[in-house]
Design brief:
This protein has 301 residues and is an alpha/beta fold. 40% of the residues lie in helices and 17% in strands. The protein has twelve helices and eleven strands. It has helices spanning 18-26, 46-55, 70-80, 100-108, 145-148, 163-171, 180-191, 218-229, 237-249, 255-265, 269-276, 286-297, and strands at 5-11, 33-40, 60-65, 86-90, 95-96, 117-121, 124-126, 132-135, 160-162, 193-197, 202-205. A seven-stranded mixed beta sheet has the order 3-2-1-4-9-6-10, with helices on both faces. Strands 5-11-7-8 form a four-stranded mixed beta sheet.
């Protein structure tokens, strides 16, 4: 397998910030790049910006697609991208630090190629003008399957996969994943290795039109955390995602992973109480753990 890194970018009406992102990709210190861009039905000048970028480079592939949403668009990219050694996910409004890809490749090269491995990193929060507003809230991370079941800690625009991880993911694509990055974190932590880099690799831009964002004030973070857990229209979305994971992979999980998944899905009150007093399922911070435990106890997860 080649040492090329295929950068997977899903665009949608991203004309405002896209040129800065593309410039940061062009300035990467790692030279062996391919860039696959799938446009998700943009109606602004996004396509023109991409075409101009592609005109100056021979390593860009543009896929014009219908609007299917960010999660399905990224899974489509992962499935249809030219096979490479590694696959890096990319958002249209961020800026990559110059050594982002190089650092990820060095980390992934420390692992066997036949084991699914996912790299992810911290990020630096910036405003619309790229002025720093604080480093990643998660300065430390304890990756693990028990965490992946209840919390997404792998920020998609920092993720890089090896080819074994890509093969594992595209064989069974989900229909009910909350986000592509959360699903990847769950699958790879169950069947492979997740490695976390605490040094920021991107400038993560916060602005009004973010599909997802990070609240930087304390009240905003509390409100966001609670909303992430609460059900929508009566659906327990985290449970729904884990149910689909179980149905797709129950015949492939090892005994420990299968038992953990079943324990999470067991709705009995006695089981929920038992789980609260164990460290099997956890979030990264004490505040998030508290919110999780309360809502899990009352069957709202």
């Amino acid at each position: 397998m080649s040492t090329d890194v295929n950068i997977l970018l899903s665009t949608y009406n991203g004309e405002k910030y896209l040129p800065e992102l593309l410039d940061s990709i062009a300035n990467q210190t790692y030279p062996h790049l391919k860039i696959t861009i799938r446009d998700d039905g943009s109606s602004d000048n996004t396509i023109s910006i991409v075409e101009e970028f592609a005109r100056l480079r021979s390593d860009v592939t543009l896929i014009r697609g219908a609007n299917i949403g960010i999660t399905r668009s990224f899974f489509t990219l992962l499935s249809e991208a030219e096979p490479c050694g590694y696959y890096a996910f990319c958002d249209q409004d961020d800026v990559w630090l110059p050594d982002k890809v190089e650092r990820a490749v060095k980390a992934l090269n420390n692992h066997p190629t036949d084991i699914p491995v996912m790299y992810c990193s911290a990020y630096e929060l910036v405003d619309e003008e790229l002025r720093p507003i604080g480093k990643s809230i998660r300065k430390k991370m304890r990756p693990g399957f028990g965490n992946a079941l209840v919390e997404n800690n792998a920020t998609g625009c920092t993720i890089v996969l090896n080819n074994a991880a890509r093969d594992k993911l595209i064989k069974k694509l989900p229909q009910k994943a909350l986000m592509h990055d959360w699903w990847m974190y769950m699958v790879i932590s169950a069947f492979g290795t997740v490695t976390y880099d605490p040094v920021p690799s991107i400038l993560y831009r916060q602005h009004a039109s973010n599909v997802l964002g990070v609240k930087t004030n304390p009240l905003g973070r509390w409100i966001r955390r609670i909303r992430q857990y609460k059900d929508r229209d009566g659906e327990r979305l985290i449970r729904r995602q884990v149910c689909e994971f179980y149905e797709l992979y129950k015949d492939e999980m090892d005994e420990k992973t299968l038992e953990m998944t079943k324990r999470f899905l067991d709705d009995s009150f006695i089981n929920r109480v038992r789980n609260l007093f164990s460290s099997t399922f956890y979030r990264q911070t004490a505040i998030d753990n508290l919110i999780f435990k309360v809502l899990y106890l009352v069957n709202r997860i």
